[in-house]
Amino acid sequence: MIRVHNLWKSFGRQEVLRGVSFEVQPGEFMALIGGSGCGKSLLLKLLVSLLKPDNGRIWVSGKDLAASSGKELESLRSRIGFVFQGGALFDSMTVYDNVAFPLREKTSLGEKDIRRKVTGELELVGLRDAEHKFPAQLSGGMIKRVALARALVRDPEIVLFDEPTTGLDPVVSRAVLDLFNEVHQRLRLTGILVSHEIPRIFEIVQKVAMLHEGRIVAVESPERFCASPEPVIRQFVNGNTTAQSCLNGETGPRACFENPVKPSCSSSFSCSPSAFRDFSITSTRTTTRTSPVLHFPKMN
Amino acid sequence: MTRWIITLGAAFMTEIGRLGKAGMFLSQSLLDCLTAPIKGERVLRQTWFIGWKSMLVIALTGTFTGMVVALQGFPTLRRVGSEALLGPMVSLSLIRELGPVLTALMVTGRAGSAIAAEIGIMRTTEQIDSLELMGLNPLRYVVVPNVLASLLALPVLTVVFDVIGILGGYLVGVRLLGLSGGTYFGEMSNYVEMKDILGGIYKALTFGLLIGWVCCYKGYHSRFGAEGVSAATTQAVVNASVLILVCDYFVTSVVF
Fold first, then answer.
1. Strand, coil or helix: what is A24?
2. Closest chain A residue by Cα to residue B131
């Protein structure tokens, strides 16, 4: 569905991407992780041709982006939903108009059909009551959910999420990720999720890719990724889980920050495969719902 | 010496490149202005914003400009015994020169800066990227309404400025300095010709296009962050104001 081969991109003398290659199969949900400023968001923008690579090829749904004409690119983009880091909602429009905008502009649907579709999407993200509000009146979590509704309203085959939980508190962040998981499970979308929410995102993706110093250093299943002996991966994953352990009070914060991969920091969140499974089981128990209705903390 | 030449050459080429980019932006925007579909609702909203909301500042500026021209001109004309020509002097100064230029400068300061800031924020918050991803032409949604609105609003505002300025000149010349009202308006109709009025309108149209182009261009290519938007806004106002004054000379030499 998405294939990237030997992608290079630099700004001036700064090489950000240095030969990135990976594949995402249809229906697969991949997490793209890496340190801040390593080029994850840039990579997503290259995938939708908002920026052009210096070198390398990208195929989306079998089409080579570099060889696509303007019309082909437009048609390809209509099959991709993009959830921007800050939501990118239009300030001058209400929530309803924001979600309806792509339908009004790019389809021949009548206003009645548009209302039905928009209402359905807003119900899916739990914001039916907020349709008359403007983006300035929404909380961070609500903005991300409206952005998701807008990304889904044209029934895309691929959805790209650019750090959808950045700046949200842990409760809202969890609710937003639950929503993405729910949407993915229900619609079987192909997706790439850029996020730092480790280990939470490992529950909802089938594959994890790590970008480090301009290259993809690993593309693995979450279990294999956590069990990887690669020092870069261990440091990145343990850095996150250690912080979690520190919050749990299982180890002293000072000790954790001084030695992020210290064995004494192992906990229910540590990254041994068995521990990861334990975490998954625990969290699945708490997040699995029998009803498709999603429950968000009250934010309006 | 060679290093100086290389540095100078590189700076020159960079500027040429920038000009070319700005020229391409203008030509693409004009092309989009001439081809359907035009977003009528957005054009109307921006016309209201640029035109109607600038009315008060234009009225105030026009009044005091007309008043000060009359106040300065009357003693000078009396020295040569031509105080009867105060009406033509005020009206021709306003219609041919001060009306279009001051209106354009005022609109640049009030609306042009707001346009640049709004588009700059749309750029930094990825709203423009979002339009592009929806398969929509961002120029058509963001730039074209502002360019068309500037083109529509500037001539109207200029006429308002001229009329109110002439009335301001009347207040000073007739009510304050004692010139007869008949002389003030009578001589005006003898000296002011249609080509003067049309010349002022042509200037206003040129300045309208300039404001729309420069302010949208600067906002559209704003750098990221608050500092980027702030720099874009400042550059938009400074560049547009300087260009208005430069263009004024060339349009004057062609039109009159």
1. strand
2. A102
CA distance A50 to chain B (A): 7
Give which of B215, B220, B230 is closest to B46, Cα–Cα: B215
Classify residue B17 by burial, with Cβ atoms within 10 Å: 0-12, 13-18, 19+. Answer: exposed
Q: State how far the Cα of B61 lies from the Cα of B177, in Å rounded to an integer.
A: 21
Contacts of B134 in chain A (CB under 8 A): 77-78, 101-102, 105-106
Distance in angstroms (rounded) separating the CA atoms of residues A55 and A5: 9
> Could you give phi then psi for residue B80, rounded to 5 degrees?
-105, 15
- Distance, in angstroms, between B79 CA and closest chain A CA? 58
Q: Are A88 and B130 inside 8 Å of each other by CB?
A: yes
Reply yes or no on whether the pLDDT at B19 is more than 80. Answer: yes
Q: Which of helix, strand or coil describes residue A31?
A: strand
Domain A2-79+156-229 belongs to what topology?
Answer: Rossmann fold (3.40.50)
Residues of A in contact with B130 (CB under 8 A): 82, 84, 88, 90
- pTM of the prediction? 0.80
pLDDT at A254: 34
Q: Are A77 and A159 in contact (CB under 8 A)?
A: no
Question: Does A78 touch chain B if contact means CB atoms closer than 8 Å?
Answer: yes
pLDDT tens for A55-113 read 999 999 888 888 888 888 888 888 899 999 888 999 989 999 999 999 998 888 999 99
pLDDT at A240: 57
Which residues of A fall within a CB distance of 8 Å from B42?
none
Q: Where are the domains of chain A?
A: 2-79+156-229
Can you name the residues that pair with A159 across neighbouring β-strands?
A81, A191
Interface test with B, best of A47, A74, A83 (most B CBs within 10 A): A74
Instruction: For residues A123 and A179, give the distance between their C-alpha atoms in angstroms, rounded to a whole number.
Output: 12
